[in-house]
Amino acid sequence: MCGIIGIVGTRPHAKAAIELLRRLESRGYDAAGIATLGDGGIKVLKKLGKVDVLAKAHKRDPIDGHVVTAHTRWATHGNRLEERNAHPHTSKNGTVAVVHNGTISNFTELKKSLAEKGYVPVSQTDSELLAHVIEDELRKLESEKIPHFMLERAVANAVKHLEGDDCAFLVTCSKFKNELVAYRRNRPLCFGMKKGQIYVASDAMALAGKVDRVFGLERGTIATLSSISGVHIEGHNDADIDRLMKPIGISSEEMVLTGYPHWMLMEIHQQVKSILAATEGRFAVSDDGLSVTMEILDLNKELWSKAERIFIVACGTSMHAALLAKLFIESRAHVPVEVVIGSEYKSSQHLINKHTPVIGLSQSGNTADVVDSLEAARKLGAPIFGITNAPTSQLFLMVTSGVLLKAGHETAVASTKTFTSQLAVLALFSVGLAIIRDKGDVGRDRQLLRGLQSMGSTIKEVLKQDEQIKEIAERFAKSKRFIIMGRGYGYPVALEGALKMKEIAYVDAHGHPGGEFKHGPLALVENGTPVIGIIFDDGRADSMLLSLNQAKTSGGSIIIFDTTGREDVAELADFLVRLPKVVEPLSAIVGSVAFQLLSYWSGIYRGVDIDTPRNLAKSVTVG
Fold first, then answer.
1. How far from 334 is each of 19, 123, 434, 435, CA to CA, in Å?
2. What is the per-residue pLDDT for 616?
3. Which residues of the chain have pLDDT under 70?
4. CA angle in degrees (0–180, nearest 5) for 232-235-236
5. Residue from 2, 173, 190, 315 carrying the catalytic annotation
6. How far apart are CA 85 and CA 305, in angstroms?
């Protein structure tokens, strides 16, 4: 996690670095800090809390320089409530400053080795050790009188002492006043250039409006960024770097909150358009026929036609999208799908080979466990694919071919529009795959594609239930537990709804299959416990009503999200939200939007920091 910014240029950049850091605040908000490099050497300012606290402190006590590094922290080592553990960290003599994203596996051994050389850390973090190791390596090089790229060489020697794959950092040294060195082992770093200034970030979106294109550092790469000599990357000349630059794909306007009190609410409402953008130009449907055009399918038809099994690797909200994809694909293309949680990939890798395509789902494209799983699958000979919202992400750049969600930038930690865009893309993928495998059902597939065409209007209908959902959130604002259940497509929606309630309302919410309710979860129902049933028009309503009746008999307050319009559903419900009736797979989108609204308003009534909930980060870039 964590957010990293660096600027090298011909003018002071501290204020600009802090403003860019705000864009990465959802990556970590335990603390924030900057280090400036100028004629007075390295100066550091860091504060606990969000970037705004840092900005106010900088206004009171400004520091500046032509080379600046900045960091927003998501704590993994050391007490997050102690300022000494915030970044940037400096070396023993104060000549080296480091901002770091990741973890150092051999932290204990390295700390002991440095202590024997007289380096005593000030903080409790593993990151500080980097500054000391680099200072130590610089001292060795100075004695050998190596003149060129000395800081880069010191970094190259220093990283040999580090164990663990989760690592990316920026380093400055007061002895080299015009340069910054960037290193990427596994975690993302990119840079762009414009008008003599060089900008670095751990996520390309942070540089929107500053640069038009970015260069993503490859694994194991060290780059020296200088206001005098430009960019130096071993094995790359200027032409190589220019050729490998990628469009940033985000406008600075997307980084501005307008018309809504929170990013999450704005992004919920943006789904009216983002859901259509996800499938625009990717299918055609008429009374005469239908077609699906997706590069991920079109360039690999033989592979997909013969695939014996498909693996989908994902984490968090994307894992719930993967569970729905399993239902989409198996019911249409008739090929088995294995959903693997990224962190548990090793349990399934013995089943993967060149005949088993592996699809990685990650909204940010930088989820560590997903990226690492895809890399492991590639080493086993499996063809790897990706679905993401980020064109400059690790995932998108590493796969054989991929699909961009085109959802627009998403700022709130809780995924909303990227999730529903995933569902739209995956539903479309299932139709295209069915066609390739000669399993298509023209009538049924036409119905799904036309449902996708009108999904923007459908989401508008869901949003009209906002006031009713808001009232439910207020009514149960003090409830300690929510139980959510569904069947078929409703089960993954229940899991996603429970996750949203955990993330945004800090509620102990549980998602269950409706049929499993009496096998344990029923014991959690007390008088007044809110129990949410998801009833879709899929032939499973009667069995869902049986489970909800059991909950009501045990004292539960019954809330139903319903697309059937049946009267017996209304008779059972204490609180009923009628949702638009859609073709069965797309009911998952409808139900998910309703849960987004419920979690948002529940968080509001519980006083939660909606866009940046405690202990979480937008992109989980450490394993």
1. 50, 55, 8, 11
2. 84
3. 1, 145-147, 621-623
4. 55
5. 2
6. 53
Residue 562: closest CA among 466, 486, 507? 486
Task: Tell me which residue of 205, 137, 425 sits closest to 296, measured CA to CA.
Answer: 425
Per-residue pLDDT, 407: 95
Burial of 154 (0-12, 13-18, 19+ CB in 10 A): buried
Residue labelled with tokens 């997050």:
80
The total of other beta-carbon atoms located within 10 Å of residue 489's CB is 26
3-state SS record for 80-145: CCCHHHCCCEECCCCCEEEEEEECCCCHHHHHHHHHHCCCCCCCCCCHHHHHHHHHHHHHHHHHHC
Structure tokens at 159: 């990283």
Residue of 170, 167, 208 whose CA lies nearest to 188: 167
Q: How high is the pLDDT of residue 147?
A: 64
pLDDT of residue 429: 97
2 as an active site residue: the answer is: yes
> What does 572-602 look like in DSSP terms, one character per residue?
H-SEEEE-----GGGHHHHHHHHHHHHHHHH
Q: Does 315 participate in catalysis according to the annotation?
A: no
Q: How far apart are CA 593 and CA 604, in angstroms?
A: 17
* Pairing of the two strands 197-201 and 213-216: unpaired
Residue with tokens 């992004």: 267
User: Residue written as tokens 């414009």?
Assistant: 194
> Are the CB atoms for 89 and 132 separated by under 8 Å?
no
What pTM did the predictor assign?
0.89
pLDDT score of 146: 65
Q: Which two tokens stand for residue 136?
A: 């130590």
